[in-house]
Amino acid sequence: GAKPVMAQGGVELWVGSLMHMIFQSIHGIIRQAWYAINAEDFDLLKFIAMFPAQISLLGIQMLWTRDAEIALKHARHDKKKMQEANEAFLNLLNTLISQTTNDLEKFERVCYETIITIHVHQVENFCHVLSSNRESAPLLQY
Q1: Which of 9, 16, 77, 104 could make a disulfide contact with 109, Cβ separation 3.0–4.6 Å?
Q2: In this model, does residue 42 exceed pLDDT 80?
Q3: To the nearest whole number, what is the mean pLDDT of the chain?
């Protein structure tokens, strides 16, 4: 947990201590996000509601990276893995987009729109890899 930092002594010392404590706090929150993403009962919307916007943004990137790596790792032996991952990414995107039809506070709307923008790029990148895989199977055989 975060510990209070006393603003005593030289400014360089207590600002350094403050920065160290901020880094520890953020690291702890990111660790909690990683555990949440890897939980069997992971729910993206609950995740976004539970964590600060920046961590939610990082979370969707960690989720995509994890699932893309797993699909790529297994693609050589199971041709369906890439398509299954792509469908899962599209389902996540649709879940995010559906939230924008709700009556959201301005901050919530910006959060969802930002996460959607990042995830659209992730989906596009994965689609590119998927289409490259179909055109040239040796690309994924490393």
Answers
A1: 104
A2: yes
A3: 89
Contact status, residue 133 vs residue 75, Cβ threshold 8 Å: yes
Tell me which residue has tokens 């506070």.
Answer: 105
Within 13 Å of residue 105, how many CA atoms lie on the same side as its CB? Answer: 4
pLDDT tens digits for range 57-94 = 999 999 999 999 999 999 888 879 999 999 999 999 99
Cα 111-117-123 angle, rounded to 5 deg:
130
Long-range contact pairs involving 65-74 (C-beta distance under 8 Å, separation at least 24): 66/37, 66/38, 68/122, 68/126, 68/129, 72/129, 72/140
15: helix, coil or strand? Answer: helix
Query: Apex CA 56: angle with CA 28 and CA 68, to 5°?
Result: 100
By CB neighbour count within 10 A (0-12 exposed, 13-18 middle, 19+ buried), where does 85 fall? buried
Structure tokens at 33: 């996000």
Share of the chain above pLDDT 90, in %: 74
